[in-house]
Amino acid sequence: MKQIAIVFFAVVISLSSRAQSMDSYVQEGEFGVAIGAAHYFGDLNTRASLNRPKFSAGVFFRKQFGNYIGLKVGANYARLGYSDVYSKNEFQQRRNLSFNTNLWEFAVSGDFNFFKFYPGISGFTYTPYVSLGVGVFSYDPYAYLDSTKYFLRPLGTEGQGSAAYPDRKPYGSMAVCFPVAIGFKYNVSPAINVFAEVGYRFTTTDYLDDVSMTYAPDAFVTTPNGQPSPAMLLADRSYETGPLIGVKGRQRGNSSQKDSYVMAHFGVSFNISSYRCPKP
């Protein structure tokens, strides 16, 4: 009986000490960096293929409101791009369009931990989490023609800004995104966490890839020497794969669906913590 009592009191003291540690430790927040890959989905990648990932990275600060809820402010960079040459669709192969863009994103998200998360306290050092937010991003699609880089937005490749198409206004260089993410976080020391996160971005633009509506061949004029202008050549590149297909009014993209992108990151974060006197 004496040995049982000793074990019992040892367990009680251990649990009491652990409870006091949990009560006294406060994770105020964390800041971190991440690196990984991003992928575009849209009029050039209609089947949501993940065959052309590109570099992505980000930084963030998360303010904790207890062990489950956090508010994250983050900034991310992503390189996005795709080409019709990767498609098995015959029309897309003939269309022969491509683009790249540098994307800069700023977003605010609410995070929810599925498990109680206490850095440095055994049994509470990991948690899956979900995140939902809103943000803004800048983008400026470009393509190459004879090894020369052309930004596509000023060219009005679908007649934007042309008197022949007064209803087609130039699209902006910024749009809104709605990040939805899932992740897993693991605390490796009282001060440091590692994590993995995948976040999908719904957006308000259909011009990440500069492709949305119909061909507008009559919106372009030739150069002074009678040659096709860069805008004309970049609007319809089917001449590189066969006869021209870009007749007026023919579908060039699908304006009923917005473009989107995804980021997959691995990262490290550093805890900001404080201590308070345990409750008596």
Coarse shape:
elongated
The total of beta strands comes to 10
CATH class of the domain at 26-144 and 172-214 and 258-275: Mainly Beta
CATH architecture of the domain at 26-144 and 172-214 and 258-275: Beta Barrel
- Beta content comes to 35-45%
What is the average per-residue confidence, as pLDDT, rounded to a whole number?
91
Radius of gyration: 26 Å
Q: What is the helix content?
A: 10-25%
Biggest beta sheet summary: 8 strands, antiparallel, barrel
Outline the low-pLDDT stretches. 4-22
Structural class per helix/strand content? mainly beta
Widest sheet: strand order?
1-2-3-4-5-8-9-10
InterPro entries: DUF6089, OMP/PagP_B-barrel
Pfam family, one: DUF6089
Organism: Segetibacter aerophilus
Protein name: DUF6089 domain-containing protein
Features:
280 residues; mainly beta; Porin; 8-stranded antiparallel β-barrel; two-stranded antiparallel ribbon; signal; DUF6089
What do these coordinates show?
Residues 20-142 form the DUF6089 domain. Keywords: Signal. Pfam families: DUF6089. Residues 1-19 form the signal peptide. Helix content is 12%, strand content 44%. With 280 residues, it is mainly beta. The strands form 2 sheets. An 8-stranded antiparallel beta barrel has the order 1-2-3-4-5-8-9-10. A hairpin with a 4-residue loop joins strand 8 and strand 9. The two termini are 31 Å apart.
Task: Write a brief structural summary.
This protein has 280 residues and is mainly beta. 12% of the residues lie in helices and 44% in strands. The strands form two sheets. Strands 1-2-3-4-5-8-9-10 form an eight-stranded antiparallel beta barrel. It has a two-stranded antiparallel sheet with strand order 6-7.
